[in-house]
Amino acid sequence: MTPLSSDSSSVLLALVFAGSLMAASAGNFYSDFDITWGEGRGKILNNGKLLTLSLDKASGSGFQSKKEYLLGKIDMELKLVPGNSAGTVTAYYLSSKGSTWDEIDFEFLGNLSGQPYTVHTNVFAQGKGNREQQFHLWFDPTEEFHTYSILWNSQRIIFSVDGTPIREFKNAESLGVPFPKNQPMRIYSSLWNADDWATQGGRVKTDWSKAPFTTSYRNFNANACVWSSGASSCDSKSSWLTEELDERNKNKLKWVRENYMIYNYCTDTRRFPQGLPPECHLS
User: Fold this and answer.
1) Is 68 annotated in the active site?
2) Is the pLDDT at 180 greater than 60, yes or no?
3) Which of 118, 164, 192, 223 could in theory staple to 73 by disulfide, Cβ–Cβ 3.0 to 4.6 A?
4) How far apart are CA 233 and CA 4, in angstroms?
5) Residue 212: what pLDDT?
6) What Cα–Cα distance (Å) separates residue 69 from each residue in 156, 159, 170, 198, 257?
């Protein structure tokens, strides 16, 4: 074998490194995820291109990513439970382990047929959450697949739907607020029954005659740093590591907040009578 030149060696190493990053973006459910519970109610179909979770009166189902990530941009297309989905919750989130875990949540709360889903978001840092914001959507999320994204870097977390930001949570460590940036997290999703609280505060119960309920997933992509053996595969040149909202997306975020936000913990003075959390004062 002819020895590689120093330039060739550098190119080869760069390709190997790029491959380690791209491994997170394979987009095949067989290689990227494990179905972790549900006794067959979770299924990987179409040669790994589609995953479905189902819920009936006996059980729901769920899956988790094979890899852990530390910062990244995560995209997944979901088609939510159609029809009368009251009482059901589809959770799609990032989470670490332990008593002081970090977590970034999308939860989709079902409703009576013809009424809008509630998109519930939350951020946990070092085991503390209570940072809920809720939205309705400007489309029916059960008719077609839509992309739900989490941008997670050391300065901000941005929740987006079809590329439109709906929430930004900024790093407020300077104000004494913990921020999730040091614990690697897996991606999780589950479909489960929560009719004690999910729909209209639990007043509307799950109609089991409509079961099984099904949520579908496709086109997973993780442009993210893979955490393995105590180290990250992060490329410091990745644009999302410093990404922030430009003026166009700030205007989109404002439009969503003005037209589709239905709850914001940062305006709930009855819940926080001693004063709103410090991060709520960030612009």
Assistant:
1) no
2) yes
3) 223
4) 25
5) 97
6) 16, 17, 19, 29, 29
